């Protein structure tokens, strides 16, 4: 058996063409040009690269972008002022605060200061609560991208046992909530989980979202499982060891080219949706 490769890169490119058409339609109907504001605090090279990728993706689908760069010494109060200005800017449809921020900043306070209608990265506690309850809200971008990928490849979720390894507020927890809303039976594992291998061995769907290179071993995963790796580490390594999986699991995401492109695609898609709501 050869596993189905869940190609996020190809799907993201296909969806970009659809998004461009939707942007053109919005503008033709008198709507405003969707603009994503990105805030980068500090000079972390990886964060700067991620922000530029998001800016580039906006341009490719005909959307606008507003990049706000702030110094490493930025305080919580200064960042909150910038967010407040963006909340009140009618040209800005979505706001992204690049994670992580310098340690002196209260990241949660800044995330929660983002207006719910502009929270296209799904980072506010209000947005999480609404999403978890099945109400209208923008989902965290990576889990939302994963759900789009699974839907595109007709991966059955209802009644399946999903194990999410990781409990971060912008990845593991919202991923679990989205799977639960799709009628999966969900187990969340983390650093305090007893016998992680046993938990994973029972999973129909495994989501690696723990941020540690190859923490999840290939021989823990049962045959015919669906394997989703949301991790990325130097050398193209994910959170899940892949050796031998392609010959026995039902489907898996490559690293890179699986989850990563869908994260940015979800962010862009939700920015367009925010603009459409305003229109």
Automatic annotation (TrEMBL):
All residue ranges annotated as the Tetrahydrofolate dehydrogenase/cyclohydrolase NAD(P)-binding domain in the record: 140-278
Leader peptide range in chain numbering: none
This enzyme's EC code(s): 1.5.1.5, 3.5.4.9
Q: Which residues form the Tetrahydrofolate dehydrogenase/cyclohydrolase catalytic domain?
A: 6-121
**One Pfam family cited in the UniProt record for this chain:** THF_DHG_CYH
Coiled coil, from the record: none
Q: Which residues bind NADP(+)?
A: 166-168
BP GO annotations: L-histidine biosynthetic process; methionine biosynthetic process; purine nucleotide biosynthetic process; tetrahydrofolate interconversion
Task: Write out the pathway annotation from the protein's UniProt entry.
Answer: One-carbon metabolism; tetrahydrofolate interconversion
The answer on whether this UniProt entry bears the keyword Oxidoreductase reads yes
Q: Which InterPro entries match?
A: Aminoacid_DH-like_N_sf (IPR046346), NAD(P)-bd_dom_sf (IPR036291), THF_DH/CycHdrlase (IPR000672), THF_DH/CycHdrlase_cat_dom (IPR020630), THF_DH/CycHdrlase_CS (IPR020867), THF_DH/CycHdrlase_NAD-bd_dom (IPR020631)
Which GO molecular function annotations are given, in alphabetical order?
A: methenyltetrahydrofolate cyclohydrolase activity; methylenetetrahydrofolate dehydrogenase (NADP+) activity
Q: Does the keyword Hydrolase apply?
A: yes
The record's catalysed reaction(s) read:
(6R)-5,10-methenyltetrahydrofolate + H2O = (6R)-10-formyltetrahydrofolate + H(+); (6R)-5,10-methylene-5,6,7,8-tetrahydrofolate + NADP(+) = (6R)-5,10-methenyltetrahydrofolate + NADPH
What SUPFAM superfamilies does this protein map onto? Aminoacid dehydrogenase-like, N-terminal domain (SSF53223), NAD(P)-binding Rossmann-fold domains (SSF51735)
Cellular component, GO annotation:
cytosol
Which PROSITE patterns has this protein been placed in?
Answer: THF_DHG_CYH_2
The UniProt keyword set, sorted, is: Amino-acid biosynthesis, Histidine biosynthesis, Hydrolase, Methionine biosynthesis, Multifunctional enzyme, NADP, One-carbon metabolism, Oxidoreductase, Purine biosynthesis
Q: How does it assemble?
A: Homodimer.
Q: What does this protein do?
A: Catalyzes the oxidation of 5,10-methylenetetrahydrofolate to 5,10-methenyltetrahydrofolate and then the hydrolysis of 5,10-methenyltetrahydrofolate to 10-formyltetrahydrofolate.
HAMAP family hit by this protein: THF_DHG_CYH
Tell me the protein family, please: Belongs to the tetrahydrofolate dehydrogenase/cyclohydrolase family.
**Name of this protein:** Bifunctional protein FolD
Question: Which organism's genome codes for this protein?
Answer: Amphritea balenae
Q: What does the organism's lineage look like at the top?
A: Bacteria, Pseudomonadati, Pseudomonadota, Gammaproteobacteria, Oceanospirillales
Q: Which gene encodes it?
A: folD
């Amino acid at each position: 058996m050869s596993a189905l490769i869940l190609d996020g890169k190809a799907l993201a490119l296909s969806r970009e063409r659809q998004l461009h058409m939707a942007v053109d339609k919005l503008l033709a109907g008198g709507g405003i040009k969707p603009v994503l504001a990105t805030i980068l605090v500090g000079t972390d090279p990886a964060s700067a690269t991620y922000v530029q990728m998001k800016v580039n993706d906006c341009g490719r689908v005909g959307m606008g972008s507003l990049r706000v760069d702030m110094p490493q010494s930025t305080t919580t109060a200064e960042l909150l002022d910038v967010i407040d200005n963006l909340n009140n800017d009618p040209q800005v449809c979505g706001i992204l605060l690049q994670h992580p921020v310098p340690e002196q900043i209260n990241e949660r306070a800044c995330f929660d200061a983002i207006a719910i209608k502009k929270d296209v990265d799904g980072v506010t506690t209000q947005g999480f609560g609404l999403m978890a309850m099945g109400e209208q809200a923008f989902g965290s971008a990576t889990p939302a991208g994963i759900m789009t990928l699974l839907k595109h490849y007709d991966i059955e979720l209802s009644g399946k046992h999903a194990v999410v390894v990781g409990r971060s507020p912008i990845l593991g927890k919202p991923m679990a909530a989205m799977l639960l809303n799709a009628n999966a039976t969900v187990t969340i594992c983390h650093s305090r989980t007893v016998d992680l291998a046993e938990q994973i061995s029972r999973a129909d769907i495994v989501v690696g979202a723990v941020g540690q290179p190859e923490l999840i071993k290939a021989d823990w995963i049962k045959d015919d499982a669906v394997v989703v790796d949301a991790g990325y580490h130097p050398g193209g390594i994910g959170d899940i060891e892949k050796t031998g999986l392609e010959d026995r699991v039902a489907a898996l995401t490559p690293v890179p080219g699986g989850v990563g492109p869908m994260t940015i695609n979800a962010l862009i898609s939700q920015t367009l949706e925010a603009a459409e709501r305003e229109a």
